[in-house]
Design a protein that fits this description.
The complex is a heterotrimer of chains A (about 425), B (about 180) and C (about 325). Helices cover about 75% and strands about 0% of the residues of chain A. In chain A, α4 packs parallel to α7, α7 crosses α18 and α15 runs parallel beside α17. The mean pLDDT of chain A is about 85. By secondary structure, chain B is mostly helical. The chains are: A mainly alpha (about 425), B mainly alpha (about 180), C alpha/beta (about 325). Chains A and C meet through α3, α9, α13 and α16 of A and α2 and α7 of C. The structure holds sodium ion (NA) (2 copies). Chain A: It is a multi-pass membrane protein.
C-alpha cells in the first residue's frame, strides 16, 4: 500500500498526467500481488471501467454544448440571462447556479452537467469578464447539484444495494440540492465586491428583456425537449443527451443556418478528443479501484476509524471524514459500491433513518467529484475549458466550504432531509 | 501549426513531429466515424421503442457501449500526441528549466512502460475475448476487447514520436492544461 | 500484501452480502463458517458481495484466470462464457417449483450433465447449482395482465439476452433491453412499461414503487451457477476438498432456504409486494396459450444459436423435468 500511495503522489506531483498516474499506481499494486495470474487484470479492468452505458451522457452533452455554442443558441440564452440579472454584480454567476438546478432535474450525472456548462456558460462568462478559474469553480460547485436533485444514478445504485426506497431518496434529495444552490449563491453575493465580479450596466427596460426573451425562445425549448423526452418515456436520462444533440443539430443547421459541414466535423473531432482525455482517467482509475477493493483497503480504513468511539455524533463525524478522505482519491462509483455496505449498517446501529443516511453518504461522495487530486468534474472542466486543475481548485474553496456546511446540516439535522419524503409518504 | 506540419522535415525531431501529427489526424477521422455511428445507434435505439417502429431492435444498447469504448480509447493516442492529457503542472513549472528535459524523458518512459504493459497483456486479453460472446447475434468479444491493445499500442507509438519531436522543443511539458482553451 | 501460508479463497457475487439479504449472501456466510472451522483455518474465505470486483461475466473471467477463486453468478453472466446455459430460458418448461428444485440441482441427471459440459468447455468446476430466487414474474405500469391479449404492445424491459427478448416479442410485447442501472428510472418515466424478474429481485430493486401491477406468470426460472477455479480446487488436500464439497452443499441448501424465506417475508417478499401492487395469476388456460406462443420460437432460437449441443442439453433438461414431475 505504501508503494502504491507513494508512486501515485510522486508521479502526480512531478506532472505526469492523471490518467497515466492512476493506471501506473494500479499496476504497481497488481505487480505487488505477486502472481503472474494478476497481470492480465490491468487491461481487463481498464476495459470494464468504461463498459457502462450511462457514461455516454458525458460525450453527448459535450457535443450538444458545442453545437449550441457554434449555432448561436448559447449566445441567445446568455443574452436573456444578461438582460435579467446581468446588471447585478456577479449576475451571470448566479444564473449559472440557477441553471444548474434546472439541469439537475434533467440529468443524473454531475460530469455530464460539468461538460455541458463548461462548454457553454464558462466561455460566455469569460467573455463577460469573469476569470476562467472562477467561472469553472461556479460550474463545478453547481454540477454536484445534478446527482443530488433527482433523477440520480448514484441514488439508484445506493437504494438497490442497501434496500432503501429509491423514490424516498429522490424526494429527500430535493431540499439538500436547493440548499446547495442557495448557499453557493450566497457565496457569489459575498464575493461579488471583493472579487469585483463583472456586471453589464444599468437595469434594462422591460422591452429589452422581452426582446431577449423572444430571441432566446428557440434555445429555451431545448431543456424542455430534453425533459419532455424523459417524462414522456421517449428517452432514458442518458439517451436524453442524444435528443439534445438532435435538437441542436436541426435548429443550428436548418433554422439558424449556422452549422456548415466543416463546423460539424470540427465539433465531432473536438468531442472525441475530450472524451479520450476524460475516459482514460476513468479507465485507469478502475485499475487502481479494483486493486483497492481486492486488498480490502477501504474496509481496513473504516475499521480503524470506527474503533475510535461509539457516540452517534462522533460516528457520524467519522463517517463523513472517511467518505471525504476516500473521495479525494477514488472514483465515486467505486467508492459508493464499496463503502455503502460498510457504512450503511453502521448508520443503522446508531439509529439513523436509512433514507437520511443514504442522502448523507451520497452527498458526501458527490463532494468528492470536485475535490483534487481525483475529482471527475474537475477533470472534465479542465479538459473542456483548458483551465488548470489547480487554479480551478484555488477558486473553488469558498464554494467547497458552503457545500461542506450543507453536508453537516444534512448529517446532523435529519428533519431537513426527511421533510419531503415524509410529506410524500415514503418515510414515516 | 499547419505550416509547421507541412514544412519539409529537416531533422529527426521534425520528421517525428510530422509523423505524429499525421497519425493523430488519421485516428481523429476514425473517431469521427465512430462518434457518428454512436449517435445514430442511440437515436435508432430510442426510435425502435416507439410504437410506430415495425420490429423490435435489441442490440443498440450493447453496440453503443462498444462504440463508445473504441472511440474513447482510440482518442487517447491523439491526445498523447498533442500532450493533451491533464496533469498538475505547477511543480514541474517551478523546477529549474535544466531539469525539464530529463524529467520529461523520464515521465515519457514511464508512460511508455504503462501503455506497453497494457498493450502486452491487452493482446492476450483480446485473444481471450474470442472465447466470450457478446449478445449481439453472438459476435465474439474479441471485437470490443481488441480496442485495448490497438489503442494502447497506438499510444506507445505516439509517446515515442512525441518524445523524439519534443527533443527540440524547449517548452515541452508532460501534460497539458491549455491546449483546448483556444476560443 | 505478501501471500501467507494459508490458502485464501475469494468468493465474488453481485448480490447483497448479509446472510438474510440474498441467497448468495447466505451461501457465502454459511460456506465461510463451515470451511474455516472445518479446515482449522487452513483455508480462509473472503467474501466480495455487491459486484465489488466486477460484473458477473468479468468476475467469471477472474475465476478462470485464478485471480479470484470462486464466483456465484447469474445465467446472464454465465451465458457469455458458456452460452448453452440459455436452455434454461425455455419458457413454461417447469410445471412447478418442486420440479424446478429437483432439476436445477447438481444431484439431478441434468445437473450432472450441465456441470460436466460446462467444465469441459470452460475449465470451471461447478460446485453448486440453484435457482435465482424462484420463478420470473412480470410487472408493469399499464394494466392488470391476466391474458395473452393483455401483453399486446407492452414494452417489457429484459436483459440483453436473445431468449428473453424472444419470449416477450412472441407474446405480442416489445422487448426493451436496458442496462440495469437505468431500469428503475425507465419504469418510472415509461421508457419501458414493465419488466420481468424473480420476486426477491423485484422487491430488492424497489420496482413496487413504480409498477402497480404484477402477474405471477412463472414463465422461466433461471439458475445461479457456483463455480470454482479448478487449479485452486486441485491444490487442496483431499481432506480440504471433502470439507469444501460438504460446505458447498450445505451452503446451497441455506441459499435456497433464504430465497424461500425472502419470498415469504412480509418485509421483502410476496406479502409485502401484495400490499403495494395488484398481484394476479394466469389461469391454466391462459398459461397454455402463453406456452404455445413462446415455446416454439425459443426452441427454434436455441437450435439456431447453440446447435446440436444446445438441443442435446435442452432435451436432457426436458427429460429431467419429465422424470421429476412423475
Ligand atoms: Na439529477
Ligand atoms: Na475527489
Amino acid at each position: 500500500m505504501i508503494w502504491v500511495a507513494s508512486t501515485f503522489f510522486l508521479l502526480l506531483i512531478l506532472g505526469l498526467p492523471v490518467g497515466y498516474t492512476l493506471g501506473i499506481a494500479g499496476v504497481v499494486g497488481i505487480l505487488q500481488m505477486g502472481g503472474p495470474e494478476f497481470l492480465p487484470m490491468a487491461p481487463s479492468r481498464f476495459f470494464a471501467g468504461l463498459d457502462l452505458f450511462p457514461f455516454l451522457a458525458m460525450p453527448f452533452f459535450i457535443l450538444a454544448g458545442e453545437l449550441m455554442n457554434r449555432s448561436g443558441m448559447t449566445e441567445r440564452i446568455v443574452g436573456l440571462a444578461d438582460a435579467l440579472v446581468g446588471w447585478l454584480r456577479g449576475g451571470m454567476a448566479h444564473s449559472n447556479m440557477a441553471a444548474s438546478v434546472f439541469f439537475a432535474g434533467i440529468t443524473g450525472s454531475a460530469t455530464a452537467d460539468a461538460a455541458a456548462f463548461g462548454n457553454t456558460l464558462v466561455p460566455a462568462m469569460v467573455r463577460q469578464g469573469y476569470t476562467r478559474s472562477f467561472a469553472c469553480a461556479v460550474t463545478a460547485a453547481g454540477s454536484i447539484i445534478g446527482p443530488t436533485i433527482p433523477p440520480s444514478t448514484l441514488m439508484v445504485i445506493y437504494g438497490s444495494i442497501m434496500g432503501v426506497s429509491i423514490a424516498g431518496l429522490f424526494a429527500a434529495g430535493v431540499l439538500p440540492g436547493l440548499l446547495i444552490a442557495v448557499l453557493c449563491m450566497a457565496v457569489i453575493a459575498i464575493l461579488a465586491r471583493p472579487l469585483n465580479l463583472p456586471k453589464t450596466g444599468d437595469r434594462p427596460s422591460p422591452r429589452i428583456i422581452w426582446v431577449a426573451f423572444k430571441n432566446s425562445l428557440s434555445s429555451l425549448v431545448l431543456p424542455v425537449i430534453v425533459l419532455g423526452g424523459i417524462l414522456t418515456g421517449l428517452a432514458t436520462p442518458t439517451e436524453a443527451a442524444a435528443l439534445a444533440i438532435l435538437y441542436a443539430l436541426i435548429f443550428g443547421r436548418f433554422v439558424n443556418k449556422k452549422l456548415p459541414n466543416r463546423e460539424i466535423v470540427d465539433v465531432l473531432i473536438r468531442t472525441s478528443q475530450i472524451t479520450g482525455v476524460v475516459f482514460l482517467i476513468i479507465a485507469s482509475a478502475s485499475i487502481l479501484g479494483w486493486w483497492m477493493t481486492f486488498e480490502q483497503i477501504p474496509q481496513t480504513i473504516a475499521a480503524a476509524f470506527l474503533a475510535v468511539s461509539d457516540n452517534p455524533a462522533v460516528i457520524i463525524g467519522l463517517i463523513l471524514a472517511l467518505l471525504l478522505i476516500i473521495g479525494l482519491f477514488m472514483d465515486i462509483n467505486a467508492s459508493l459500491i464499496i463503502l455503502a455496505p460498510v457504512l450503511g449498517p453502521l448508520t443503522h446501529q446508531i439509529g439513523m433513518d436509512p433514507v437520511h443516511a443514504g442522502i448523507m453518504i451520497v452527498l458526501a461522495l458527490n463532494l468528492s467529484l470536485m475535490t483534487p487530486p481525483v475529482g471527475a468534474c474537475l477533470f472534465v472542466l479542465s479538459s473542456v475549458t483548458g483551465e488548470k486543475i489547480e487554479s480551478i481548485a484555488k477558486s473553488l474553496w469558498p464554494f467547497l466550504i458552503a457545500e461542506l456546511l450543507v453536508l453537516f446540516l444534512i448529517a446532523y439535522w435529519p428533519d431537513l432531509t426527511l421533510l419531503l419524503p415524509r410529506l410524500s409518504g415514503f418515510v414515516q | 501549426m499547419n505550416a509547421a506540419v507541412r514544412a519539409e522535415p529537416r531533422s529527426l525531431s521534425a520528421y517525428a513531429g510530422v509523423l505524429s501529427e499525421n497519425l493523430a489526424r488519421l485516428v481523429d477521422k476514425l473517431c469521427l466515424v465512430l462518434l457518428v455511428a454512436l449517435i445514430l445507434d442511440v437515436w435508432l435505439g430510442m426510435l425502435a421503442r416507439t410504437s410506430f417502429f415495425p420490429f423490435p431492435l435489441t442490440f443498440t444498447e450493447e453496440l453503443a457501449r462498444y462504440l463508445m469504448i473504441w472511440l474513447a480509447l482510440l482518442a487517447v493516442s491523439s491526445a498523447v500526441s498533442r500532450r493533451q492529457h491533464i496533469g498538475m503542472l505547477f511543480v514541474f513549472e517551478l523546477l529549474p528549466s535544466q531539469l525539464h528535459k530529463p524529467l520529461l524523458v523520464g515521465l515519457d518512459l514511464l508512460a511508455l512502460a504503462f501503455f506497453g504493459f497494457l498493450f502486452y497483456y491487452g493482446l492476450s486479453f483480446a485473444g481471450d475475448g474470442a472465447n466470450r460472446v457478446t449478445m449481439i447475434y453472438g459476435l465474439s468479444k474479441f471485437i470490443p476487447f481488441a480496442s485495448v491493445p490497438v489503442a494502447t499500442g497506438l499510444a506507445c507509438v505516439q509517446i515515442l514520436l512525441s518524445a523524439v519531436r519534443d527533443m527540440s522543443n524547449e517548452h515541452a511539458e508532460p501534460g497539458s492544461a491549455d491546449v483546448q482553451g483556444e476560443e | 500484501a505478501p501471500a501467507s501460508a494459508e490458502k485464501v479463497m475469494k468468493i465474488a457475487h453481485m448480490n447483497p452480502g448479509g446472510p438474510f439479504e440474498s441467497h448468495a449472501g447466505a451461501m457465502v456466510t454459511v460456506f465461510k463458517s463451515l470451511v474455516e472451522a472445518g479446515t482449522n483455518g487452513s483455508i480462509k474465505v473472503q467474501h466480495f458481495p455487491d459486484g465489488q470486483l466486477g460484473k458477473d461475466n468479468e468476475v467469471i473471467d477472474q475465476v478462470r484466470m485464478g485471480v479470484v477463486q470462486s464466483s456465484i453468478s447469474s445465467a446472464g453472466g454465465v451465458a457469455q462464457h458458456y452460452p448453452p446455459v440459455g436452455v434454461f430460458d425455455l419458457p413454461f418448461a417447469f410445471p412447478n417449483i418442486a420440479t424446478a428444485h429437483d432439476v436445477i440441482n447438481l444431484d439431478s441427471d441434468f445437473g450432472k450433465m450441465f456441470a460436466e459440459d460446462m467444465h469441459a468447455k470452460t475449465g470451471l468446476k461447478v460446485i453448486g447449482l440453484l435457482d435465482s430466487g424462484g420463478f420470473f414474474a412480470l410487472t408493469n405500469s399499464k394494466k392488470e395482465v391476466t391474458t395473452l391479449d393483455d401483453m399486446n404492445g407492452l414494452k417489457i424491459r429484459t436483459m440483453t439476452l436473445p431468449t428473453h427478448e424472444t419470449i416477450i416479442n412472441s407474446v405480442g410485447g416489445k422487448a426493451t433491453p436496458l442496462p440495469w442501472a437505468e431500469v428503475y428510472t425507465a419504469l418510472q418515466t415509461g421508457v419501458a412499461d414493465g419488466q420481468m424478474n424473480p420476486v426477491p429481485t423485484i422487491s430488492f430493486a424497489k420496482f413496487e414503487e413504480v409498477q402497480p401491477y404484477m402477474t405471477l406468470t412463472n414463465h422461466i426460472i433461471t439458475p445461479y451457477v457456483w463455480m470454482i477455479n479448478e487449479k485452486f480446487y486441485d491444490g487442496l488436500t483431499p481432506e480440504e476438498q471433502r470439507v469444501v464439497d460438504y460446505a458447498a452443499k450445505a451452503a446451497v441448501d441455506a441459499g435456497r432456504g433464504v430465497s424461500r424465506l425472502i419470498e415469504a417475508s412480509d418485509t421483502r417478499g410476496l406479502p409485502y409486494l401484495a400490499s403495494k401492487m395488484k398481484i394476479s395469476t394466469l389461469s391454466e388456460e391462459e398459461r397454455q396459450k402463453f406456452a404455445a406462443a413462446t415455446q416454439p420460437a425459443v426452441k427454434k432460437l436455441i437450435e439456431e444459436q447453440y446447435g446440436d449441443e444446445g438441443m442435446k442439453l435442452m432435451q436432457a433438461l426436458e427429460s429431467s423435468i419429465e422424470k421429476a414431475s412423475n
